[in-house]
Amino acid sequence: MNNSTSDFSAGVTSPATQLPAAFLNLLTSLIRSPSVVGAEHSFFRILERELEERGAKVAWYEGVLVAQGSKPDSIMFSAHIDRHGLMCTGPNEFQYAAFVAGARSDLLGNSVGEQLMRKIVDRFATESVFAYEPWSGAYRGQGVIDRAYICEYRNNLIFELKGMEHLVAGTPVAFTDRLKITDEALVGQLDNVLTAAVLVYLFELGFQGTLFFTAQEEAGKSWRYLLEWFRRFGGSTNQLIVVDTSPYPDLDTAKKQNLVLRNKDANASFNRELTERLSTLCDQNGISYQYKDVYVEQKNAELVARGEEPGSIGSTEMGRIISASNGLVDGTTLQIPTSGYHTLSESAPLESVSTFIQALTMLANINTNK
Most buried by CB count within 10 Å: which residue of 97, 150, 266, 300? Predict the structure, then answer.
């Protein structure tokens, strides 16, 4: 199998994948639309249009877009829509948007994202970027990252850019990205536009439940917006499935399982019955899966045995909302394994993406053979 790559052209499905052309068209469009952490408004407007064109009833609240069909209580999926990028914080000064939006500048290693940030600080040099107006999405110019470093005084990621000297504080700067397809994977800044695109595509297939699209997950805030919606409208027995990508050290390791489940994260234990429902569905349909918390705990045991520091089992939107809701919101996660997490080369195995779409359609009782 070769590793040739190609950009996806509208209406053409790569021979390397069985993924639907309609889905790839949608993902190709969405991945080029900026949605920097803390500046997601323009992306919400795009999602609103795409969802309404597919028959959804859409309501926009602070930090969350809600799309519903004719049976909104039948099943609920949630995906965050923010992606990593930069924020102008002063004249020719740019910081990592997730830390700006989260009102924090420490790298304490409390989440998988922050641990990885220290490892990938040198990966952004020479990357192309573009600025946009956060509400309308209007283009505000392009440039190139000249240098990225952790400032010893602010203890934060600082970026130096070429060609962006005209920007004012508060202007978001996104990474320039296009969807690429290899014989093995979809490649790009996939977290988390990939699963968001799948959710939109579900309405094209006849989805009638409820979808949530949340902002600022990478800043640790999305659960707050989601919880506010449930406090307004939810009952006491909500069962939510949060979808996302899940990082692995390399593509070969990611390909060892089609899907990723969790029993828990660093914040809370997930709903056991709903998690078992997902595992049973996988077992009955020949879908391979792995419990990410078990995988991390096994790796940590190996690290401790070697006298090394163990890593975090991860902090997720699902765990945060379970922990904070006092029983109002419960649920579990379903994730796509990827490599190159939080980079412009995050890679999702083609079989995993196809299986992920299949699993969601079965959970939602969508008949794709009509």
Answer: 97
- Is the Cβ–Cβ distance between 37 and 191 less than 8 Å? no
Q: How far apart (Å, rounded) are the C-alpha atoms in residues 310 and 323?
A: 23
78 lies in the same domain as 28:
yes
Q: pLDDT of 148-182, one tens digit each?
A: 887 767 666 788 899 999 999 999 999 999 999 99
In sequence order, the β-bridge partners of residue 87 are 95, 172
Task: Please say whether the beta carbons of 207 and 201 come within 8 A.
Answer: no
User: Contact at 8 Å (CB) between 258 and 334?
Assistant: no
Contact 207, 362 (CB under 8 A): no
Pair (227, 334) in one structural domain = yes
Mean pLDDT of 331-340: 96
All residues at 6 or more sequence positions from 155 whose CB lies less than 8 Å from its CB, including other chains: 105, 106, 107
Tell me how crowded residue 40 is: count the other CB atoms within 10 A of its CB: 26
- 41/7 Cα distance (integer angstroms): 27
Whether 35 contacts 193, CB under 8 Å: yes
What does the pLDDT look like over 191-216, one tens digit per residue? 999 999 999 999 999 999 999 999 99
> How many domains are contained in the chain?
2
Which residues does 198 contact at the CB level (< 8 Å), separation at least 6? 23, 79, 243, 353, 356, 357, 360
Q: Is the pTM of the predicted complex or chain greater than 0.70? A: yes
The DSSP secondary-structure symbol of 83 reads B
In this structure, are strands 64-68 and 210-214 parallel, antiparallel, or unpaired? antiparallel
Tokens for 351, please give them.
């079989």
- Output phi, psi for 98, to 5 deg: -60, -35
- 270 and 321 co-located in one domain: yes
Residues 321 and 247 in one domain: yes
Return the higher-pLDDT residue of 344 and 18. Answer: 344
pLDDT at 159: 87
Range of the domain at 302: 5-82+179-363
The answer to whether the CB of 112 falls within 8 A of the CB of 247 is yes
Residues 61 and 74 occupy one common structural domain: yes
Pairing between strand 259-261 and 210-214?
unpaired
117 has pLDDT over 60: no
